[in-house]
Automatic annotation (TrEMBL):
The lineage of its organism: Bacteria, Bacillati, Bacillota, Bacilli, Bacillales. Coiled coil: none annotated. InterPro entries: Bicupin_oxalate_deCO2ase/Oxase, Cupin_1, GPI/OXD, RmlC-like_jellyroll, RmlC_Cupin_sf. It comes from Paenibacillus lactis. CDD domains: cupin_OxDC_C (cd20305), cupin_OxDC_N (cd20304). GO terms for molecular function: oxalate decarboxylase activity. Residues 31-173, 209-350 form the Cupin type-1 domain. It comes from the Bacteria. Keywords: Lyase, Metal-binding. PANTHER family: OXALATE-BINDING PROTEIN (PTHR35848), SLL1358 PROTEIN (PTHR35848:SF9). Its EC number is 4.1.1.2. This is Oxalate decarboxylase. It is an enzyme of class 4 (lyase).
Length: 373
């Protein structure tokens, strides 16, 4: 009868009318990039989700950024590792490691990059511009709290710059007076025209990985692509899996034994129920642009509640992707013990799978997310 935000209620039906199996209280496990501050610049924009927006998310933070054609995320470096995936368009990235070896490459949709802490780098939009997700291995890290080349120049006396670079102080008359962060530049030429010969060679481990070119794990309910230090060796602090959950399917009931899970919803709609100790469970609804979070070892599953594929990133502050399947665990446990523990019959026991399902879909399940609780 009173005031209400109907559109907000429609986006969060499982908070308005929770499933009867929800119980107790959990911290908020959802935040939308649409609800955070937009940093606008000539050349692009950025917005971030850190512990300031989602206090439970202590292990990882994320930045959604876009660059215009020619737009530049200026030369800079961080105290945290940077992992990224290109969502739209294409970009050119550059970096130089601690041994003076350079790396210059073009990346497109589905491509990743990873820069260890302290490695200087830059990002520039190509002909169509680009949008991407940056993930840092520290939940409190803000991309605005970065170390930028323009900021350092602006806060260094010109006589010091002159001595450092061996040119007259007049060479620095027009340097920026503050950090540029993102600025509009010219669209760079072909990659071959931008390469810089390096007497020390190139980096021994590539800073990029083509995730969509990776052979997926195919299941009846969708696909899974896992990327960690085993197939992207430079990525030693962040592991991830890219999920495609088809309509009527779900990410199976599972948990992660090595760290908290930070999620990014790329497209589609879904809901996740998280199970915690002491009979606590809560359900959250997600859509494109949302961040989700699951504390270490909490059980959970993700259902597709729409009529098209739900694409989700699962991310971890870890060198390895690890998960425990509830189904697989039970299938590999003595059957009598399972039956006595849960009071289930032989039909259930025979249906258990010794292989991980990752994403599952069963006849009769497809209507459940849209019509039932």
């Amino acid at each position: 009868m009173g005031p209400r935000d109907i559109m907000r209620d429609l986006e969060n039906p499982d908070m308005l009318v929770p499933p009867v199996t929800d119980a107790g209280t959990l911290p908020n496990l959802k935040f939308s990039f649409s609800d955070t501050y937009m940093q606008l610049n000539h050349g692009g924009w950025s917005r971030e989700v850190t512990v300031r927006q989602l206090p439970i998310a202590t292990t990882l933070s994320g930045v959604n950024m876009a660059l215009t054609p020619g737009g530049v995320r200026e030369l800079h470096w961080h105290q945290s590792a940077e992992w990224a995936i290109v969502l739209v368009g294409s970009a050119r990235i550059t970096a130089v490691d601690q041994d003076g070896r350079n790396f210059i490459a073009d990346v497109g949709v589905g491509d990743l990059w990873y820069f260890p802490p302290g490695i200087p780098h830059s990002i520039q939009g190509l002909e169509s511009g680009c949008e991407f997700l940056l993930v840092f291995d520290d939940g409190s890290f803000s991309d605005l709290n970065t170390l930028s080349i323009s900021d350092w120049f602006a806060h260094t006396p010109k006589d010091v710059l002159s001595a450092n670079f061996g040119v007259p102080a007049s060479s620095f008359t027009h340097i920026p007076k503050q950090q540029r962060y993102i600025f509009q530049g010219n669209i760079p030429g072909p990659l071959e025209s931008q390469l810089v010969a390096d007497p020390y060679g190139t980096v021994p481990k590539s800073f990029t990985h083509r995730l969509l070119a990776q052979e997926p794990i195919v299941t009846p309910g969708g696909t899974v692509r896992i990327v960690d230090s085993t197939n992207f060796p430079i990525s030693t602090t962040i592991a991830a899996s890219l999920l495609e959950i088809k309509p009527g399917a779900m990410r199976e009931m599972h948990w992660h034994p090595n760290n908290d899970e930070w999620q990014y919803y790329i497209s589609g709609t879904g809901r996740m129920t998280v199970f915690a100790p002491n009979g606590t469970a809560r359900t959250f609804d997600y859509r494109a642009g949302d961040v989700g979070y699951v504390p270490f070892a909490y059980g959970h599953y993700i259902q597709n509640t729409g009529d098209r594929s739900l694409w989700v990133l699962e991310m971890f502050k870890s060198s390895r992707f690890e998960d425990v399947s509830l189904n697989q665990w039970m299938a590999l446990t003595p059957h009598q013990l399972i039956q006595e523990n849960l009071h289930v019959g032989s039909e259930f026991i025979h249906a258990l799978r010794k292989e991980k399902g990752y994403i599952v879909k069963y006849p009769g399940y497809s209507d459940y997310p849209r019509t039932g609780r």
